[in-house]
Design goal:
Largest sheet: 3 strands, antiparallel
CATH topology of one domain: Arc Repressor Mutant, subunit A
Order of helices and strands: HEHHEEH
Structural class: alpha+beta
Distance between the termini: 30 Å
Strand order of the largest sheet: 1-3-2
CATH superfamily of one domain: Winged helix-like DNA-binding domain superfamily/Winged helix DNA-binding domain
CATH architecture of one domain: Orthogonal Bundle
Low-confidence stretches: none
Number of strands: 3
Oligomer: single chain
Number of helices: 4
Strand content: 15-25%
Helix content: 55-70%
Length: 105
């Protein structure tokens, strides 16, 4: 897919994945990558920003002698996801109408 994903939609994809379960960074990249071509170098700055905004929190768990940093959706992150989902519905409808040559109304 060659279409650039807008920042807010990428945020929504990450928040949506984390609404189902907590993920450590690499596993989250793999989850998102099943649907969008994204690299770890793209995802980690997004995770840092979402954490800074208070939409995610982190915790560490030991795994094979090392710690994995897990990302967890916060209550305000869930509120932001709900907002993005509503905006996505409107955006998706408008884009479908334009791309498919449909007339509004």
């Amino acid at each position: 897919m060659a279409i650039q994903v807008p920042t807010e939609l990428l945020d929504g994809c990450v928040l949506g994945a984390l609404s189902r379960q907590d993920f450590y960074g690499y596993a989250l990249t793999q989850e998102v990558r099943q649907h969008l071509p994204i690299s770890e170098s793209t995802l980690y700055p997004v995770l840092r920003r979402l954490k800074k905004d208070g939409w995610l929190t982190t915790y560490d768990e030991a795994y094979q002698g090392r710690n994995r940093r897990y990302y967890k959706l916060t209550r305000t992150g869930q509120q932001q996801l709900t907002k993005i989902q509503g905006e996505w519905g409107d955006f998706k409808q408008a884009m479908s109408e334009l791309l498919e040559g449909k007339q509004n109304g």
